[in-house]
Write a structure and sequence with these properties.
It is built from 15 helices and five strands.
Length: 337
């Protein structure tokens, strides 16, 4: 309602009704049709026509001709753009159901073959293998498909991490691992598990060590890939900046660090200021210098990445790393002296 002219939101609302609600009422389906029709009016996009056709089919008012018309339009539009997207799979799957109901067996077979071909060529497992393919075109197509369709897919994240963790006969920075880092750096945080975040920390350590062994002509590009991945993983953490509450000079520094971190390219994490009194610092040991405190087992890579960023954005202060004994998942601290 707040964005009545946003075709993507209109389409997603209609799609939610027909795909996610169990036995939606006729009223809800009519609403879905109105939203889908409005989306198509605003933008003639294949996935919007697909939704409109699918809604007509679900309405079950003997209007399969309309469903077929809109789904056919969707297929024609998508065939001109990209047959390697999940949109192409959805359209053919929906067409198959319409043809099945109309007992048009030859068309059912054709659409089923399209869906099977898509699943075989563009399943998650196949795509992960292809991002390390020797053929540049195949690598590129696979990486695009992963980014477009699987950034929120837990299996894709798991397989990409496994690729990064494979024995490193040729060093870390193989083509497959470079593309795996590219993909992981754009994935959805909400589907990562704590165990995967801990594994990503190990990947950070290994990939950082491999940078020093890179030939000069590849080091810049690899470092850029590493930074994107590191910033993404670091963004999973809350960074707490501790300082004595009576030290106004440290409060100014803490505020400045917070602003610089938030504005740092690619960083999307949370940064909190934590002013504390003497009793707190006596319990946790006062810092000997400006410190990054972290849990060694699962946060070494993240701590290294944060240290690297702080050296860039605040070179006037000398930060050091210091391990802590108590694990604090997805939480890392900066102590100012």
């Amino acid at each position: 309602e707040r964005e009545p002219n946003n075709p993507l939101l209109l389409n997603n609302y209609a799609r939610f009704i027909v795909d996610n609600l169990e036995n939606p009422s006729d009223k809800l389906l009519q609403n879905a049709r109105s939203y889908a029709e409005r989306a198509v009016e605003i933008e003639q996009d294949a996935k919007y026509y697909d939704t409109l056709g699918w809604v007509h089919f679900q309405l079950n008012v003997n209007d399969d001709d309309s469903a077929l018309k809109f789904l056919t339009q969707a297929k024609e539009l998508q065939s001109k753009i990209n047959r390697e997207s999940s949109v192409w799979e959805d359209i053919n799957a929906h067409l198959g159901e319409v043809y099945e109901k109309g007992q048009k067996q030859s068309q059912v077979k054709a659409t089923s073959e399209e869906v099977s071909k898509f699943k075989k060529a563009y399943s998650v497992s196949t795509l992960i293998k292809q991002i390390g393919d020797a053929n540049r075109t195949e690598r590129s197509k696979a990486l695009i498909a992963l980014r477009d369709d699987h950034r929120s897919n837990p299996k894709a994240i798991r397989l990409a991490l496994e690729l990064c963790e494979k024995p490193k006969i040729a060093g870390f920075w193989t083509t497959g691992r470079v593309n795996a880092l590219h993909f992981l750096a754009g994935t959805d945080r909400s589907v990562w598990t704590d165990e995967q975040i801990a594994r990503a920390d190990k990947v950070l350590i290994q990939s950082n060590e491999g940078l020093s062994q890179s030939p000069p002509e590849k080091e810049s590009l690899r470092r850029k890939t590493f930074n994107r991945f590191a910033n993404h993983i670091l963004s999973f953490y809350t960074i707490a900046i501790y300082f004595h509450k009576n030290r106004e000079d440290l409060r100014e520094v803490a505020n400045d660090i917070q602003k610089r971190l938030i504005n740092y390219d690619g960083f999307k994490g949370k940064v909190e200021l934590r002013p504390k009194d003497d009793s707190f610092f006596e319990r946790v040991f006062p810092p000997n210098t400006d410190e990054i405190r972290y849990e060694q087992e699962n946060e070494t890579g993240v701590a290294d990445s944060l240290l690297s960023i702080l050296k860039q954005i605040y070179p006037t202060r000398q930060f050091r790393k210091r391990t802590v004994g108590i694990p604090t998942p997805e939480f890392i601290s900066i102590f100012l002296k």
